[in-house]
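Below is how a single chain appears once it has passed through the pipeline. First comes the sequence as given, then the structure the pipeline wrote out for it. We keep one example in the README because the format questions we get most often are answered faster by looking than by reading.
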Amino acid sequence: MSRSSRLWLAAAALSLALVYWLPLWHVGLKAPQYPEGLGMYIGVNRILGEQPQDLESINGLNHYIGMKRITPADIPELRFMPWLVAGLIGFGLVAALSGKRQLLYAWVGLFAAGALAGLADFYRWGYDYGHNLDPHAIIKIPGMSYQPPLLGSKQLLNFYATSWPAAGGWILIAALGIGVALSVRELRKTRRILGTAPSLMAA
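Resulting structure:
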């Protein structure tokens, strides 16, 4: 890898450390009875209400329609995700220090696979919370489910739900984008070198 590629890769890897302080995702709810909205932030190792009381308010609403409580301590992903991020940071720095293109490609591949697995797990989590309802709930609407959107917005009864990356999520997207761009640049450089090799041998 070129010196600039190594520096960019190191910066991308180190930027991942910011997700220990910044939330990855934001889920919001708005309804006539909650014009100011309710929201929660999902971090690498925690789930917090957008306002101090929001998570408890969301759990209270969920109780009426039979959804399980959102209890961070019961979500195993919040315990091992910090270690996965630490592994990505370390691997990225090793790849940058070594300058080996194969390690850059491996880092990008692992990063992309982890991101897809995380989105799939988030979808599974939302599906379980929205479909696995308590049959003895106070409010029951036959055929109704309450799965929040994975990305974008959705109407759920009188609530308008939104789901978008938060600051930490955008940092992950930017870091992965940098990794992909560096991989493309290094691949093109390798092809140019290989393409000129026959002409050099002929000369």
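The CA atoms of residues 193 and 199 lie 11 Å apart.

See the next section for the split statistics.
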